[in-house]
UniProtKB/TrEMBL annotation:
Alphabetical list of PANTHER family matching this protein: CARBOXYPEPTIDASE (PTHR11802:SF201), SERINE PROTEASE FAMILY S10 SERINE CARBOXYPEPTIDASE (PTHR11802)
GO biological process: proteolysis
Coiled coil: none
Species assigned in the record: Elliptochloris bilobata
Name assigned to this protein: Serine carboxypeptidase
SUPFAM superfamilies: alpha/beta-Hydrolases (SSF53474)
Listed GO MF terms: serine-type carboxypeptidase activity
Highest taxon of the lineage: Eukaryota
InterPro entries per the UniProt record, alphabetical: AB_hydrolase_fold, Peptidase_S10
One Pfam entry name: Peptidase_S10
Length: 456
């Protein structure tokens, strides 16, 4: 295996070798094959996307390649998937501030993973042209495909690897859109071929009215909101035109005061519940900056850290870390944040548009394997909404709903799986919006089986 690794390294381009990450503060020497840096997608505009590649532990040869994108729009994969979900390390606040601890369920146990900050003005990605802050599904997909083409030229040994797209949340727009662009692009004479096999999406944003209906019903069924508030929202709101985000974020094209009042009333009623994981502890800081959390009544992995988001930002904001990752090389005029939208203005109509026609087009071509999964504790993109839009696709049921099982505990159900002619749908018990963090073993097993064409 050592000789194979050396051969692969010798075939890297100079740009790839320059991107090798050899040391990380709080960890030391990096034994994994990790690369990070920028791929320019528009030299005239000075627009470049930041990536982190974590190669499979057994080497890239013969292993799948996953392109991961977080959602938002405007949430960075560097501070999401890489450092707080399924990368090789987590911030180690339990032992040492600004340190790292090993993630025993990192996805690179089974695949090479590329974490992409997209679009520009997300995470460490940037553009020197101010108008690029106006982004949309099509422009984001165009840049992502161009990124892949140029990434493959930088890492030619990955060019023929079976590629899988993956993401969560607003990745429900990014991933199907990019998949369609790749499929259409591959069909053009003389186009650079991308070996796309399919995609897997967690708790995806898909269609505004259905997504919002799923949210309201989930909140109500979990007694997070009252009957009166639920009734008021349905009476006063056009759910096709409302964007409900975290915290106080509510966006309506033509604000109706009673609709806005109803949604804000709902958010007051569920208080400081972590809406991305309704059974998770809430991160709190005392007057001295120390952390304290409430009691978590649900059975979860014992080392979950409700403050991991803050710790990821703190770690990736360290100049020494950015230098080690070859990040922020131009000196961005704003601090790093995972979901801090630094001037990014994402097309509102695209945020509201349905992705169902894209799914229908991809299913009709029968070229890709598609897995959609839902963490059952997610209240922002809950399983109820996902199941509504899956039903709207009117697919043929090929395998009725059945349980699938935990990889660590015999005969313990990890969730359920339903197979349609076009999409496989799985639920994960005990998982929130960021399923790979809250149920790491189950999510790793699910991903591994899917990209290796094995049944869940």
């Amino acid at each position: 295996m050592l000789n194979n690794t050396l051969v692969e390294r010798s075939g890297d381009t100079p740009d790839a070798r320059a991107d090798r990450v050899k040391h990380l503060p709080g960890w030391g020497k990096v034994e994994d094959q990790v690369y990070s840096g920028y791929v320019t997608v528009d030299s005239e505009a000075g627009r470049a996307l930041f990536y982190i590649l974590v190669e499979a532990q057994g080497g890239s040869a013969g292993n799948p390649l996953i392109l991961w994108t977080n959602g938002g729009p405007g949430c960075a994969s560097s501070g999401g998937g890489f450092i707080r979900e399924h990368g090789p390390w987590f911030p180690n606040a339990f032992v040492e501030q600004n340190g790292l601890r090993r993630n025993e369920y990192a996805w690179n146990r089974a695949a090479s993973v590329v974490y992409l900050d997209q679009p520009a003005f997300t995470g460490f990605s940037y553009s020197n042209r101010s108008s690029d802050r106006y982004a949309a599904d099509e422009t984001t997909g165009h840049d992502a495909r161009l990124f892949l083409e140029r990434f493959m030229k930088r890492f030619p040994r990955l060019r023929n690897a079976p590629l899988w797209l993956s993401g969560e949340s607003f990745g429900g727009h990014y991933v199907p859109q990019l998949a369609q662009m790749i499929v259409d692009g591959n069909a053009k004479p003389g186009a650079q071929q991308i070996n796309l096999k399919g995609f897997l999406l967690g708790n995806p944003s898909t269609e505004s009215e259905i997504d919002n209906t799923g949210r309201i019903e989930y909140w109500y069924e979990h007694r997070l909101i009252s009957t009166e508030t639920r009734t008021e929202i349905y009476k006063e709101c056009d759910l096709e035109e409302v964007i409900i985000g975290p915290g106080d974020l509510v966006d309506m094209r033509q604000p109706k005061s009673k609709c806005l009042d109803g949604i804000r009333r709902a958010k007051r009623e569920f208080g400081d519940t972590d809406i991305y994981d309704v059974y998770e502890d809430v991160c709190r800081y005392d007057s001295k900056g120390g952390r304290g959390t409430g009691e978590d009544p649900s059975p979860r992995p014992c080392d979950l850290d409700p403050c991991i988001g803050d710790e990821a930002v703190r770690y990736l904001s360290m100049p020494a870390v950015q230098e080690a990752l070859h990040a922020n090389t131009t000196g961005l005029p704003y601090p790093y944040d995972v979901c801090g939208i630094r001037g990014l203005e994402y097309d509102r109509s695209d945020q509201l548009r349905t992705m169902l026609p894209t799914y229908q087009a991809l299913i009709a071509k029968k070229q890709l394997r598609i897995l959609v999964f839902s963490g059952l504790f997610d209240g922002m993109e809950p399983h109820l909404g996902t199941e509504l839009w899956l039903a709207k696709l009117n697919m043929t049921l090929t395998t009725p709903t059945r349980p699938w099982f935990d990889p660590l505990e015999a005969n313990v159900e990890a969730g359920q799986v339903t197979e349609y002619d076009g999409i496989t749908y799985a639920t994960i018990k005990g998982a929130g919006h960021m399923a790979a963090y809250t149920q790491p073993a189950r999510t790793l097993q699910m991903m591994t089986r899917w990209v290796n064409n094995e049944p869940l």
